[in-house]
Structure to design on (465 residues):
């Protein structure tokens, strides 16, 4: 029987990063993956392909509607959807091939097949040739998550789809209904809205991006409405019926009245759930917490000795970068080093235009927890770099403790917010203050100056606003 120091089941962001770090630390690691390509949902049918389409669709939208203000008037702009999809596919392949090379570089053994936890230290691998067992001192469960399916609205992969199918439509639907106004729903809705579909988003809660600061959620909704997206908030979907080439979605509006909307495609994006029915997790006796999450302690260990879990399977937000951090931390723990993830400083991003990015507590959460705060805000419309880009929508909000000035949260709606949030996370990791950001010299003109001005405005001393 083949033996290893660690066996990782699942080659998504958590699993493959854990394998790389384990290899760097001198551990003999095996990575078991059932799919032909490494990278999991994120790289193959999630984060990366969606961002490729978001970028391409934004360029198409700008070419049609946003260039004349710059003095650029293209004679004609045509959509070549097959080429757009081909570009997306080539990016995914390049990155998945790169992960395979990283496995070789770090001496990680990649085993293609379905990994099944048989007992602590024992994993069965099932492939086309049959089943074999491998053993290790530690087994890491990293099987990720799967889309939530509404019980009255099963996926058919054609009319009623998940984000996987929505990333690969062979033509632009005339109309698209999206159920769910979280990151996936807003991003995929944005892609097809830019390419010409009439997009209607139905959300059970009273605002888009419900995890975000309420003020920032309102700003994002306003911007997306201006781009043509229609929102039905505080509405409950009751069912849908396929009629020929159309799907009719029935729902109750915010007044309790029955409404319906017909569409060519229906994207159900109401969230994801831990894939804890995979890899023999339940059968092996791994203890589960709420919503099917695997219960782990502070060192990522389950109730079974030597069996660990990371990523979407366990606590915290279902984000690729969170899973990566856990993968690194666990590998270091297994190598006898300290490993830690600061869940209070995990950024969250919605890659629409403008983008929404946030880290730390919202104003509402601070109020609920009785934390006294001061806030500073600054709008992109007063920033020279934003004006030159022609992207002036949105603002940055900095939340600091009213007594200590400790940075508690940063929330951004605006251009390139996904890149800007990293500075805030770094300051939060070091336990820094709003003053630290405000006193730091930022290059001029840059978008990051909006964060500096918002930090200064905590003490009502913004320079340019």
């Amino acid at each position: 029987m083949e033996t290893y120091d660690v066996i990782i089941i699942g080659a998504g962001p958590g699993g493959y990063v854990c394998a790389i770090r384990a290899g760097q630390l001198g551990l003999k690691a095996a990575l078991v993956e059932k799919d032909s390509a490494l990278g999991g949902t994120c790289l193959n049918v999630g984060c990366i392909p969606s961002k490729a389409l978001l970028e391409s669709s934004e360029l198409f939208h700008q070419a049609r509607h946003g260039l004349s203000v710059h003095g650029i008037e293209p004679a004609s702009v045509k959509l070549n959807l097959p080429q757009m999809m081909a570009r997306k596919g080539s990016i995914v392949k390049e990155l998945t091939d790169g992960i395979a090379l990283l496995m070789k570089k770090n001496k990680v053994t990649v085993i293609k097949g379905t990994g099944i936890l048989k007992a602590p230290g024992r994993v069965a691998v099932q492939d086309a040739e049959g089943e074999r067992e491998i053993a290790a001192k530690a087994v890491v469960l990293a099987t990720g998550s799967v889309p939530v399916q509404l019980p009255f609205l099963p996926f058919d992969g054609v009319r009623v789809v998940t984000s996987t199918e929505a990333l690969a439509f062979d033509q632009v639907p005339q109309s698209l209904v999206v159920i769910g106004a979280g990151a996936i729903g807003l991003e995929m809705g944005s892609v097809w809205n830019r390419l010409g579909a009439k997009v209607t988003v139905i959300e059970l809660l009273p605002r888009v991006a419900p995890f975000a600061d309420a003020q920032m959620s309102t700003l994002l909704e306003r911007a997306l409405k201006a781009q043509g997206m229609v929102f039905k908030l505080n509405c409950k979907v009751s069912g849908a019926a396929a009629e020929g080439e159309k799907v009719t979605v029935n729902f109750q509006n915010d007044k309790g009245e029955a409404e319906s909307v017909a569409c060519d495609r229906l994207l159900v994006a109401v969230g994801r759930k831990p894939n804890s029915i995979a890899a023999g997790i339940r059968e092996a006796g791994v203890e589960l917490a709420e919503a099917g999450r695997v219960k782990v302690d502070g060192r990522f260990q389950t109730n079974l000795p030597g069996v660990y879990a990371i990523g979407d399977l366990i606590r915290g937000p279902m984000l690729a970068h969170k899973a990566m951090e856990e993968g690194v931390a666990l590998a270091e723990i297994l190598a006898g080093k300290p490993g830690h993830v600061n869940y209070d400083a995990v950024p969250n991003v919605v890659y629409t235009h403008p983008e929404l990015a946030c880290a730390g507590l919202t104003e509402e959460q601070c109020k609920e927890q009785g934390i006294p705060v001061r806030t500073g805000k600054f709008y992109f419309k007063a920033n020279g770099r934003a004006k030159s880009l022609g992207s002036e929508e949105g603002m940055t909000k900095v939340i600091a403790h009213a007594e200590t000035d400790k940075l508690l949260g940063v929330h951004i709606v605006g251009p390139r917010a996904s890149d800007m949030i990293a500075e805030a996370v770094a300051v939060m990791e070091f336990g820094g203050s709003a003053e630290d950001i405000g006193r730091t010299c930022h290059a001029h003109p840059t978008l990051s100056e909006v964060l500096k001005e918002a930090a200064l405005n905590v003490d009502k001393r913004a320079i340019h606003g």
